[in-house]
Amino acid sequence: MNNKKERDEIVNRLSSFLFEEGELEVYSAINIKKNVFKVTDTNGEKYIIKRHLRKKIVDQQWQFFDNFSNNPVIPFIAFPNSQKIIKKNNQIWTIAPYIKGEHLNYRFKHDRGSAVATLKKFHAQAENIYIEQPLIKNNVIIRWYKRLEEFKKTENIFAKYGLKNLHKDIVQTTVKQFYRLSDYSWDQCDYSGRKKGRWIHGDVASHNFIKNNADEVFMIDFDLLECTSQIYDYIQLGQRFLPYINWNLEELFSYQMVEEKEHKLWLAAINVPSDLMRETLHSVSEKPGEVGRHLKQMEKQWERRKLFSNYTNKVIQ
């Protein structure tokens, strides 16, 4: 009962804030995940309202959306009073159209194909787009190295579940893959992407693709939007597909994510278990009660993944 009362109070405060600052008259609001609300106005129109902590990230998205023809992107829109953002207590709020549909599911081949096709459509339009002061990040190797250093700190958690050797194996494999990646110029890769005004989504998880009743697929949540080489989206997408295609290299190639001349670089990066480290760190910080189950599932996948990595490393030599 107390939880319901607390939720009602949050919704009431949000409704008042949206009307006072954005002139949005709220009929109902549902908290669908952390910092994200589905809102219906008094005319029956539905929107997604999101709270952000970093204005620079929101500003970059707005500049990008202003230069991008919408499909297949679900962009921010202005509030009824024409404000692009509204603010309270150093928090920034945005509004976007609500799309009725289902998230893609990478278990299904059709959905995997839809994700690739939609991402390629996005990438084809997301070039020659130049904005003021784009957010420049470290190259992917530096980011992954920092992630590895954080992952090393989880050794005691793995040990708690009798998986200390798994932790050691992941760390050693990552270091070995870093040596292989040193054969490629990642700074040049980033520079080339920025010079051509190319952008990536940055988080190609299945829940960021929405399929409506007409089988049209849209992309949402551009918080990790970045001007860089578009191969990074395909590295991440390849990593996400592999558990669902039985670690089959030929099937991975069948999606034609990258050109043949990029296969070596792409596979070398896919073989870095950056995704496993990311998911573990997320589980530890956001879902500590589920860490044990997460690690046991990882243990089951790891041997298959090592076989795939060993095989592909020979292929790309």
From TrEMBL:
<protein>
    <recommendedName>
        <fullName>Phosphotransferase</fullName>
    </recommendedName>
</protein>
<dbReference type="InterPro" id="IPR011009">
    <property type="entry name" value="Kinase-like_dom_sf"/>
</dbReference>
